[in-house]
Amino acid sequence: MRADVLAAVNALLTEDGYDALSIEAVADRSGVHRTTVYRRWGSVPMLLVDLLDLGAEDDWRAPDTGSLEGDLIAVNREVRDALSADPSPTLAVIAASFRSPEAAQALRRFWADRYERCAVAVQRAVDRGEVPAGTDPDRLLIAATGPLYHHRVLLGRALTRDEADAYARAALAGAAGA
Amino acid sequence: MRADVLAAVNALLTEDGYDALSIEAVADRSGVHRTTVYRRWGSVPMLLVDLLDLGAEDDWRAPDTGSLEGDLIAVNREVRDALSADPSPTLAVIAASFRSPEAAQALRRFWADRYERCAVAVQRAVDRGEVPAGTDPDRLLIAATGPLYHHRVLLGRALTRDEADAYARAALAGAAGA
C-alpha cells in the first residue's frame, strides 16, 4: 500500500509538479482510499517526505570501479542522468523542496545518506594513495556533483555525459592536488 | 520610480518570500500608486524579472587580483557572502525562480552575464600560463561556484569562507591539471 501511494506521488509530481499534488489526486491515482491516505500521511509535504525517505532506504552502494576517478565518474553520470531525464523526478523533488521545509529536510537527509555511503570509496582511494589521507568525502562529493546541480538545475542548461565526466575529473584533480 | 519599486520587491521577497509578493504589497511598500505598478509591470513575475535585469545592468567586473587563484577566491567569497546573508536576497530569488519560469530565465540571464564578464579573468590566466589555452570560462566558473550553491542552497549547510576558498582552489587545480 505504501509503495502504491508513493509511486502515485512520484508520478504526479514528475508529470505535473508540486501544485498538482493533493491527497485526493494521490488517492485517485493509487487506488487507495482517501481516508487511509489522510490518516497515514496527513499532508502533501509528509507524502513527499516519505517518498524521499523511501529513496534513502534502498540498497544503493558507492561504485567500486577500482579507481576514484572511475567511481566519481560513475556517480556523476548517475546524477547527470537523473537530472536529464524528461520528465525528471529528481528535478521535481528539488523544485518541491523550495515549497516545503519538510521536503527540503528529507532531501537533505537523502543526500547526507548518499555521501555517507560514498565515504568508503574515498577511503579506498586514500588507501591506494590516490588522494591524501584526511580528504573530506563530503567536500569531494560536493565538488564533483555540485557543478552538475548548478549547471542543470539552476542554470537550466543541457548537460552531456562528457561534461559530467569533466566535472568529476576536475574535482579529483582538486582533491589530489590539495 | 523603478528603483523604489524594485527596492520594495527586493525587501518583501527577502523578508517574507515569494508568497508575500503582490502588486498591492509592492505598491504599499514603495509608495508608488498601484495603477502605476500594474501598468508598468503587470504581474509579480515581471517585477522579479525586472529586479534581476537591474542586477545585470550594474557595473560589476571580474576581480583582477593578479592571479586566477586570487580571482576565483574573490568570486567565491562574494557568492558565499551573498548566500550566507540572513536574510539573503539571493536565496530568496533562487527560491522564487522555482515558482516563476520568467524569473528563472531572468536569473539565468543574470548568471550568463556574470560568466561573460569573468571570461577576461580566465583569458588573463591563460596569457600568464596558469591554465591551458582553451580553458572554458563557463565550466571553470561553474566548477568553482557550483559547489557553493549545492552546499548552501540545496544542502542547506553553513558555508565558511575557508570552505569557499577551498572550492575555488580545487576548481583551479582541476582546470590547471586538465
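qc> The two ends of chain B are 49 Å apart (CA to CA).
qc> done
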